[in-house]
Amino acid sequence: MIMMRKFIITSILSLFSFTMLSQVTNSVLANGNWYKFSVDTTGVFKIDRNLLQQIGIATNNLNPKKIHIYGNGGNLLPEFNGDFRYEDLEENAIYIEGEQDNSFDSNDFILFYAKGPHDWNVNPITGAVSHNQNIYSDEAYYFITVNEVDGKRIQNKTPITGPPIIQLTSFNDYVFYEKEIINIFAAGRRWLGEEFSIENQQTFQIPFPNVLQSEPLTISGRVVGVSSSASSMQVSVNSQNISTVNFSAITSGTLASDRSFSVNNISGTATIDVTFDYNNSGNPSARAYLDFIEVSGKKELIADDFQFSFRSFDAANTNGVVEYQIQNPQNIIQVWDVTDPIEVAIIQNESTTTNFSFKANGGDLKEYIVLNQNDFYTPSVIANSKVENQNIHAIKDINYLLITTDEFAQQAQRLADYHIQNSGLTAQVVMLDEIYNEFSSGSKDITGIRDFIKHVYELNTTDDDKLKYVCFFGDASYDYKDRITGNNNIVPVYQSEQSFNLAFSYVTDDFFGMLEDNEGTMSPSHSLDVATGRIPVSTQEQASDVVDKILNYYTTVALGDWRNTITLVADDIDANSDISIQPGVERIADDIKDNKPVFNVNKIYADAFVQQNSSGGERYPNVQAAITTAMETGTLVFDYFGHGGEDGFAQERFLDIPQVRGFQNENTLPLFITVTCEFSRFDNPNRITAGELTLWSNVGGAASMITTTREVFISVGQGFNEDLMAILLEFNDEDLTIAESLTKTKNEFSNFQKFFIYYFGDPAQKLAIPEPNIRITKMNGVDITQSLDTLKALSKVNFEGIVTDNLNNILTNFNGNLSTTVFDKPIDKSTLDNDNFGIVNIFDSQESKLFRGLSSVENGNFNFEFIVPRDVRIAFGNGKLSFYATNELSDKAGFNKDVIVGGINENAPEDTLGPEIQLFMNDESFLDGANTNASPNLIVKLFDLSGINTSVTAVDHDIVGILDGDESNPIILNDFYQTELDDFTRGKVVYRLRDLAVGPHSLKIKAWDTYNNSSESVLNFVVVSDATLTLDNVLNYPNPFVNYTEFWFNHNKPNEPLEVQVQIFTVSGKLIKTINRQVQTTGNLARNITWNGLDDFGNKIGKGVYVYKLKVKSTISNISSEKYEKLVIL
């Protein structure tokens, strides 16, 4: 048998409907000394002298008349914005025994009525009742303070005169049993209790003392079945079968069968045995769960040796005076009217007979409690009970709120400071506990967070001062009460009621942004009033890394022509429902081409690549490689539409977690959009997703994401994605942040699955779209207002142009660099119908780059020249010139699509020499055959008087690398090549090789010039294990020296921060000098530690031979290595 704990036998009512109070702009917590304590049920609590001291109140010389208790109870706050809620902590009327002598003595005590966490929905007309389990907390909180003013005390209630219409000797009561043990699919609010699998029959005892046996009881409850076949459960009360619950078989959509039962003709007994017997229909994997049991009925008004609450539906339904008759008055010390728990009143006994009686006005439902001198609840002392003064009610005229905890306050403040200093925003970091204290009476009720945001939103002097952005800085979990191991519910999130269907269950911060009085119910028709974003981090390291990435996005190192590229990725067809995916993404591409042609669209459509079969299933290795290339060469927006999950993209897994971890693009961080299923289901702490890892990575990934947390229907995702991209890329000249673009899209979208789409990052961050404009003014010395020359194969062309403002006026103070990419004409490509659905889609692609180079901009003017590759498509058509310029302070972009490409220059001078090739690893000091790390940066320096061919028009004219003779897996390097500044004949490729095996390797590079002359070069190198730190070529230069030398060494940890120590000893072993430095190199050579020949005390060291020890430690892996060498001082 399982007994129900006393604290859940509660009788709590929703009694009144009020209008909103006038807005409070100062909290009572702003001044004075405050302490907080908790209660776990509804009833009368006692605080004696000892407990008062434990809470934190000094009792010496304490005048009890000055004690105040504040709190609003622990019931769930109403989610509907228009419902009544207290705007600040309210003072409660309390009773203090012995306060008349102005001294809190050892026998004195406080009695007060507290509202616990759980309550009931009650309809006294129909008699229907149902309990509200507080999903956020099993405790309620109250606050106590002492000041110079007398506290609020319980007063006697004015007796009612007049004869009663009816006498009441019984009352309505109700109890529930519910345990929250498991959330079976780690989604939504539904937590269930006991499992029926091994033990298929279980009985629960529900006490219901003083039951009125002449009246029937109502027994109701809810159970859940999980089985691939139909199953059932028999429900019995006191050995009498009352109901058979039938569970349907689960489906791919509905993961559990949710069933309720209710019977209202049960004979009343003081103890009710409820038995559940689960029939799994022979399926051993089937299981069922108890959700809750409710018992309601009538009890006799008898005072026993315990406190109890009572109320009467008969009184509520009677117009006139009613009289309550309570038996056993000797067990009663007081009766309180607790209908208004803030204004409790003492009821006087009006009887001179054997019963405690009093009269009351009928017509509405009132709540009373009988006190017994031996039965008071005891509050719990909480850790850190002292509440520091706070007053977030006074916050006003704030554009940007960052809500977090003490652990992440410093990192959140970094974001706030940036926007205060650079974005013209007012911003404030607010601690979550402060919100709970002032807006949810200390309870972790997330509606209090929403109410605080609404409060700030409505307090502004002007529209410019209005709240615009809210950042939730911290991770969240489906477990509000810390029941699971490793829980990380730091800044809670809204969970839907639906928990058994992931296409209808959702997790969202949109709840916090719907602030109108008629909102709060999560209706898809409601609109967001502020833009929200979340930074879902659980550790200091994650928080620091993500903020570093966000702030890096704003710095000059992040400038580059990657901001002109939009990458669109589409899944292939694995089912008929997928047929619309790639055409839908192509519509977005066409919209970009028509509305924002300044962007270059990189299309990665999976079905346009060759699918391969492997032991793990169908795969697209070239799609995987194209995604990594897009991320690491840089793209302003990366937008994927298709199937996916917590581990990556698509059934073919062309993006997976190892790939995400390997992204190295810390200076080219895209807005990463994934309109797919569950890619960033961040609210399950025990299941880390690819989306979270994309955000958390400290070497790449993304710093801002629009991503999905649950299963999204294809039709919904496609429509939402199209609408989003139009707003995000400013088709109609919107000037919004990324989060505001998402907000606008949601507000114009009516499907409820919009709640599934999330923004990770800084909600005040704008997409780094370069400003217009860059224009060419001359081609080959001829003004472009005249007819333009044609870009013919092997012709040498020269362009001149200007950088302008938005009105096309030249910016004569603009000095910097221009990146130019010249594209050949678009071509039509087709998908390959890899999965034999009979669907072939044609799409255009402008991907062949005739030239990509750097040139100088001086006083707003630029010019550049290049030779058009022989591989240009001979047919005539419009190419595209794409421009990006930066002066290290701002960036500009422009384009030209009027230039004609085609034909060949028949008079081109002869060129039969191939390019000059130089090869290195990590830096240009690398020597052939030397050691390197497992993932080194390949550096290819190229020179040719005719320029290097990067066109992809012809087969086998790429810049290509062959590793260890593997001709079947060539490394195409065209996209990684760029010319040197103002010199189209020279350029460089920088490409990261990945996870090479330890040991010797060779790499052959082949490159072509624009005349299709080729050259090859081979680099030999040895990969040293990353599990060790290898030191080679340790020396000091010059050596011998007089008063200056540098310590040089090669290592296998490029791009890692290294702690380096050099200790110089005499030949006898005496330490005379220690040098400590932190070193980080892009290559393998470190040479920036110097010494002037002085010892640790600044004295000149004598001539002679000395020994030095070089010790190097990786700050990432903590591995170290050391070597000894000699030096000579002259």
Detailed description of the structure:
The chain is mainly beta. The chain is built from 12 helices and 75 strands. The strands form 19 sheets. It has a 9-stranded mixed β-sheet with strand order 46-58-57-51-54-55-50-47-48, with no helix packed on it. Strands 36-35-39-43-44-45 form a 6-stranded mixed β-sheet, with helices on both faces. The longest helix is centred in the middle third of the chain and has 15 residues.
Span between N and C termini? 92 Å
User: Strands of the biggest beta sheet: in what spatial order?
Assistant: 46-58-57-51-54-55-50-47-48
Query: Largest sheet, described in full?
Result: 9 strands, mixed
Structural class given helices, strands, pairing? mainly beta
**Given the C-alpha coordinates, what overall shape results?**
elongated
- Low-confidence spans: pLDDT under 50, at least 5 residues? 1-22
Q: Count the strands?
A: 75
Mean of residue pLDDT? 94
> How much helix is in the residues?
10-25%
Taken as a percent bin, the fraction of beta residues is 35-45%
Radius of gyration (Å): 37 Å
Count of discrete alpha- or pi-helical segments spanning 4 or more residues: 12
Task: Lay out the secondary structure.
Blueprint: E1 2-3, E2 34-39, E3 43-48, H1 49-55, E4 67-70, E5 91-92, E6 95-97, E7 109-114, E8 119-123, E9 128-132, E10 140-146, E11 155-156, E12 166-168, E13 170-177, E14 195-196, E15 201-207, E16 217-226, E17 231-237, E18 240-247, E19 257-266, E20 271-279, E21 287-300, E22 308-310, H2 313-316, E23 321-326, E24 334-337, E25 345-347, E26 356-361, E27 368-371, E28 380-387, E29 400-404, H3 409-422, E30 427-431, H4 432-439, H5 446-458, E31 469-473, E32 494-495, E33 507-508, E34 531-535, H6 540-552, E35 565-570, H7 581-595, E36 600-605, E37 612-614, E38 617-619, H8 621-633, E39 637-641, E40 644-645, E41 648-649, E42 655-656, H9 657-662, E43 671-675, H10 690-696, E44 704-708, H11 714-728, H12 738-747, E45 757-760, E46 771-772, E47 774-779, E48 782-783, E49 790-793, E50 796-803, E51 816-823, E52 827-830, E53 842-845, E54 849-858, E55 861-867, E56 877-878, E57 880-886, E58 891-896, E59 900-904, E60 916-921, E61 931-932, E62 937-943, E63 960-963, E64 971-972, E65 977-980, E66 983-992, E67 999-1008, E68 1014-1023, ...
Parallel strand pairs: 1-15, 11-25, 12-23, 29-30, 29-31, 31-34, 35-36, 35-39, 39-43, 43-44, 46-58, 49-59, 61-68
Antiparallel strand pairs: 2-10, 2-28, 3-7, 4-5, 4-10, 6-7, 8-9, 13-21, 14-21, 15-20, 16-19, 16-21, 17-18, 17-20, 22-27, 23-26, 24-25, 24-27, 32-33, 37-38, 40-41, 41-42, 44-45, 47-48, 47-50, 50-55, 51-54, 51-57, 52-53, 54-55, 56-59, 57-58, 60-62, 62-66, 63-64, 63-67, 65-66, 67-68, 69-70, 70-73, ...
Helix pairs in contact: 3-6, 4-5, 7-11, 11-12
